Amino acid sequence: xxxAIDVGNTNVVLGSIDKGNCCSIARIATDAGxxxxxxxxxxxxxxxxxxxxxxxxEGCIISSVVPPVTVxxxxxxxILKGDExxxxxxxxxxxxxxxxxxxxxxxxxxxxxxxxxxxxxxxPLIIIDMGTATTLFAVGPKNTFLGGCIMPxxxxxxxALAGGTSxxxxxxxxxxxxxxxxxxxxxxxxxxxxxHAAMMDGMIDRMEAQLGMKxxxxxxxxxxxxxxxxxxxxxxxxxxxxxxxxxxxxxxxRK
Length: 255
Hints:
The chain folds into two domains: 2-89, Nucleotidyltransferase, domain 5; 121-237, 2-Layer Sandwich (Nucleotidyltransferase, domain 5). The protein is built from seven helices and eleven strands. Strand 4 (59-64), helix 2 (67-81) and strand 5 (86-87) form a beta-alpha-beta unit. The chain has a six-stranded mixed β-sheet with strand order 6-9-8-7-10-11, with helices on both faces. A five-stranded mixed β-sheet has the order 3-2-1-4-5, sandwiched between helices. The radius of gyration is 19 Å and the shape is globular. Helix 1 (36-49) crosses helix 2 (67-81) and helix 3 (108-118) packs across helix 7 (241-253). It is an alpha/beta fold and 255 residues long.
């Protein structure tokens, strides 16, 4: 069994990769203030809670968009197993032909998402990740990673509304019942959820126009299941896309 660690700005997702099967184990808070020992204890306790022994782990792969936490988690895994974790970054085999201006700028989450998506559908494709930020990136024929766009995520939008206005408070993100809200809560939900879906549709249209062809669209991230039903385009929701991508990368780089 391989321990997969996906580090986002808000949460660290722990997952397992066992004979090609990917499973999300738990979410813990991303905290650069924790030490390697604290993370080691936390990961060990989560594994015990899920009935997984340290002796079952053959290796570890880390995908991270928070560099300070990457280093801490590498050290944490070394404390737990005495081995080095594989970190998604420069020098690993991906199978992607990266065509952005500076490939070194490409975030590990985007690499992993693209690799995971290519394991599911054929290019051209658009990968949407709805997390703290919402990202849309395009992969063209022959696995060419072309680039994309980054925008504030749904939660950031709600927090910005609450923090920047006097009469609008934060709300729990749920599926809105209608586009035309009749109270403040419903108006906010309509704006941030259905509005986000409309933005996804518009960006997909414009990306396909630039590609010159229709694309398969895969969505992942914590809020993809909330937003995707309001999109007019067909979005294939893959909650464990990044884990699937890490499983593929582990096999490409295990030696």
